[in-house]
Write a structure and sequence with these properties.
Layout: H1 8-14, E1 42-44, E2 60-64, H2 72-83, H3 88-91, H4 99-126, E3 128-132, E4 135-143, E5 146-153, E6 157-163, H5 167-172, E7 174-181, E8 187-194, H6 196-216
Antiparallel strand pairs: 1-2, 2-3, 3-4, 4-5, 6-7, 7-8
Length: 220
């Protein structure tokens, strides 16, 4: 005799479970870092991030830049360069120079200063390390006409080593993440990134999940 009454619990359990091949949000690792700030150095599941050679179904898990404290090495000289024209009358013999030169020289100086600041900022902003659900990507940005992109599949990762050396890096919690791979480039280095231990943990878990997908035949 067929069942007339079927409980909701039984009906739900009879449905096939959906297979989630990749994590859907930051709650899986319980890590802060999901942010909409375009200048963030640690972005976990960032929104609207695209890069060269990205596959249509590829999902960006991590976007990393060098820790903001590393910018101090060029921000301080830039600050001094901005203040330098105020001391030109003391350092240079302004009284012996033509009036036009007194105006042009500071303008040229500020133009050089602006170019220096722009180049250093772009070097920091576009020098990124990307972890997707399929691979790791290192973008070395040298200048506006020169860049180098290195990548390796997640399943090619052999070892992940976080390195935090020095009092400054320990205090601000940033360091290098050295990744040994079986790809054409055997060593990929994420330099001076925030939370290196968390980055290493995400990489290890991504590798384990990729291996599990291969065993279950769920690789795209």
């Amino acid at each position: 005799m067929p069942d007339v009454f079927v409980s909701k619990e039984k009906t739900k359990s009879s449905k096939p479970k959906s297979i989630i091949t990749k994590p859907k949000g930051p709650e899986r690792h319980n890590l802060p870092g999901h942010t909409h700030n375009p200048l963030a150095a640690f972005c976990y599941y960032p929104d609207y991030v695209k890069f060269v050679s990205e596959d249509p179904e590829e999902k960006v898990v991590l976007l990393l830049r060098r820790h903001p404290i590393t910018n101090v090495k060029w921000i301080l000289p830039a600050f001094l360069m901005v203040l330098a024209p105020s001391f030109f009358p003391v350092i240079l013999p302004y009284d012996l120079l033509p009036a036009g030169f007194r105006i042009i020289f500071p303008l040229v100086w500020y133009l050089i200063t602006s170019a220096f600041i722009l180049e250093e900022f772009l070097s920091w902003f576009f020098h990124v390390n990307i972890v997707t659900d399929e691979r790791i990507v290192e973008v070395d940005f040298f200048n506006l006409v020169s860049r180098e992109i290195t990548d390796a599949n997640i399943d090619q990762i052999q070892d992940v080593t976080p390195r935090v050396v020095g009092a400054v890096r320990t205090f601000f919690n940033f360091g290098d993440v050295v990744i040994q791979t079986a790809a054409a480039v055997p060593l990929i280095n994420f330099e001076a990134v925030p939370n290196p231990d968390k980055v290493a943990r995400i990489l290890r878990e991504s590798r384990i999940e990729e291996e599990q997908e291969k065993l279950e035949g769920r690789v795209r």
